[in-house]
């Protein structure tokens, strides 16, 4: 199921990086340096271009837009939290992590239920095998 979704993971990582560059370009420390602002803005646009390129590749490889979307969003959430902590010293409280856990758990349930539906439609479910 997740074997061919490495492009989705990389798309999520690039999305988190784009957010970091966007936030860096608006920091007061860069207020007087137009070159740094332009550089961060340019890097943000480059990362967003990579996001769409990788996401489209993930869509083509996965065969399901749901899988690519879920994996991309999950990696984006996790990388955003990690980068926010490492670069901006942001702290995510316990409630944020609980919320993220619920979101990821729900997304995994959706993926698993879609896979089960596909198996039963294809006739590869265990119930179908026992009937014949």
From TrEMBL:
Keyword Membrane belongs to the record: yes
Keywords recorded for this protein, A-Z: Membrane, Transmembrane, Transmembrane helix
Record-annotated EamA domain positions: 11-111
Stretches that traverse the bilayer: 34-56, 68-88, 94-112
InterPro entries according to UniProt: EamA_dom, EmrE-like, TMEM42
UniProt GO cellular component terms: membrane
PANTHER family hit by this protein: TRANSMEMBRANE PROTEIN 42 (PTHR31965:SF1)
Stated name of the protein: EamA domain-containing protein
Organism this protein belongs to: Henosepilachna vigintioctopunctata
């Amino acid at each position: 199921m997740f074997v061919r979704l490495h492009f989705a993971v990389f798309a999520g990582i690039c999305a988190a990086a784009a957010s970091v560059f966007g936030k860096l370009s608006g920091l007061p420390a860069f207020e007087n340096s137009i070159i740094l602002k332009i550089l961060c803005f340019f890097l943000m646009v480059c990362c967003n271009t990579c996001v769409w390129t990788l996401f489209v590749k993930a869509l083509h490889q996965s065969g399901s837009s749901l899988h690519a979307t879920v994996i991309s969003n999950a990696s984006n959430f996790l990388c955003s939290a990690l980068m926010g902590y490492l670069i901006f010293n942001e702290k995510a409280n316990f409630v944020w992590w609980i919320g993220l856990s619920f979101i990821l758990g729900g997304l995994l349930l959706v993926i698993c239920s879609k896979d089960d539906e596909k198996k039963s439609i294809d006739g590869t479910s265990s119930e179908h095998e026992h009937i014949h």
